[in-house]
Design goal:
Layout (H helix, E strand, L loop, with lengths): L1 H28 L8 H13 L3 E4 L8 E5 L4 E7 L13 H22 L1 E7 L10 H7 L8 E3 L2 E3 L10 E10 L15 H15 L8 E8 L10 E10 L2 H22 L2 E6 L11 H13 L19 H7 L2 E2 L2 E3 L10 H6 L3 H23 L1 H10 L6
Parallel strand pairs: 3-4, 3-5, 5-11, 6-12
Antiparallel strand pairs: 1-2, 2-4, 7-9, 7-10, 8-9
Helix pairs in contact: 1-2, 1-3, 1-10, 2-3, 3-10, 5-6, 7-10
């Protein structure tokens, strides 16, 4: 039965292939930032509604979030779609590919849903990239995954990987408030908020000697002052801190915050830290689902070589929070972009190449076949059903 179901899924995907590639290119050409992805969300909802999905828009009080559901089988699999872009460099992480790939996986799996006992939901998840709170975190808290037994998505990268290391992360804003004064005539009357940020950045540089090799700290100054002859009274920065787990993240974040406190203490500025209280968790790849994905991706012609130096890659995603709540996978799919890598403008250009279009097909088919295998492999299906739904970390 699974073989016939997979053939049907492939046939359904083939029928939608042209629309999916066109959708990927359209989203790529109209990049939208997190929580502003109105056109991408509309296009996805329209495509899925036209192929028979029951679409609900604006779920979880997020205008650009949605669910599109098909089937009524006992095993419920959620396929996550991302579609937000990065500031200035657009779809340099390939979310246009993810959107089309996840929609395609849903369409393909829907063809076999009733036959194999599946409920398939494509979950539109905004704001994975640069929001202080990732869309999936809010959606998880507000019940979007409550009735799912498993979740998955596939992310573009320079190479393929089944269980890439995806670590915990927190994003937050830092603001210092001092006092203006004439920088030459009356400098003693000013409180220099830019100096506060300089002290903090110096302390962070020294802190890097005393954190784990797997920890990461990086950020940008978003406001450094207004005029060189005015003592800066207002400065701000946006920072990220990462660690292998939520527990390690909490530890290194406390050390980082003390660096910002040092800047305030040294200059007399007032410090405000905004955000970071809902961090991205590390991704826990569910082993049996990941193995099913590996087998199905290899059937499409994908290979998974030893990644060598790229085993140290330390990206983060709010899919980690979903993975702590329900069994999940988050493989990578290669688009032959090297030497360009994610978050480079050159990677943006690679996300509408023939290799990227092939990734839409391969990733969608591998995910659809994996969903079918989850429903037709008794050991996997029974374990997922026995665990039930609605878990929380």
């Amino acid at each position: 039965m699974a073989v016939d179901a997979k053939a049907g899924a492939q046939e359904a995907l083939k029928s939608a292939q042209e629309q999916l590639v066109e959708l990927s290119h359209r989203i790529h050409g109209t990049p939208e930032l997190g929580y502003e992805e109105e056109r991408a969300a509309d296009w996805l909802c329209e495509l899925l509604a036209d192929t028979g999905f029951r679409v609900e828009r604006g779920i979880c009080d997020i205008p650009t979030a949605f669910t599109a559901r098909f089937g009524s089988g006992p095993l419920h699999v959620s396929i996550c779609a991302e579609y937000d872009a990065l500031p200035a460099i657009g779809h340099a992480c390939g979310h246009n590919i993810i959107a089309a790939m996840s929609a395609g996986a849903g369409i393909a799996a829907a063809r076999a849903a009733d036959e194999v006992g599946l409920t398939v939901t494509v979950v539109g998840t905004p704001a994975e990239e640069v929001g202080n709170v990732g869309g999936k975190i809010l959606m998880l808290e507000r019940g979007a995954f409550d009735d799912a037994h498993a979740a998955m998505m596939v992310h573009p990268a320079p190479f393929d990987g089944v269980t890439p290391p995806l670590i915990a992360a927190a994003l937050f804003d830092v603001r210092y408030t001092g006092k203006e004064s004439h920088a030459s005539a009356f400098p003693e009357l000013g409180i220099n908020a830019a100096d506060a940020l300089t002290v903090a950045q110096t302390a962070i540089g020294l802190l890097r000697q005393h954190i784990r090799q797997t920890d990461r700290i990086h950020g940008i100054i978003t406001h450094g002052g207004d005029a060189p002859n005015v003592v800066p009274a207002h400065t701000s920065a946006k920072y990220m801190v990462r660690a292998q787990t939520i527990e390690e993240l909490t530890e290194v974040r406390q050390k980082l915050f003390r660096c910002f406190e040092a800047g305030a203490l040294a200059t007399g500025s007032k410090l405000e830290i905004i955000g970071g209280e809902k961090p991205y968790a590390q991704v826990i790849h569910e082993a049996s689902i990941a193995e099913l994905y590996r087998q199905n991706a290899e059937r499409t012609g994908r290979t998974f070589p030893d990644l060598g130096q790229f085993n140290r890659v330390s990206a983060s995603t709010d899919m980690g929070n979903v993975s702590l709540a329900i069994p999940s996978i988050h493989p990578m799919i290669g688009i032959d972009s090297l030497p360009a890598v994610n978050h480079q403008p050159e990677f943006t250009a690679h996300c509408v190449t023939p290799s990227a279009d092939k990734a839409v097909w391969d990733g969608a088919l591998a995910m659809a076949w994996t969903a079918i295998d989850m429903a037709t492999t008794p050991a996997v299906r029974d374990r997922l059903l026995a665990r039930g739904t609605g878990f929380r970390p």
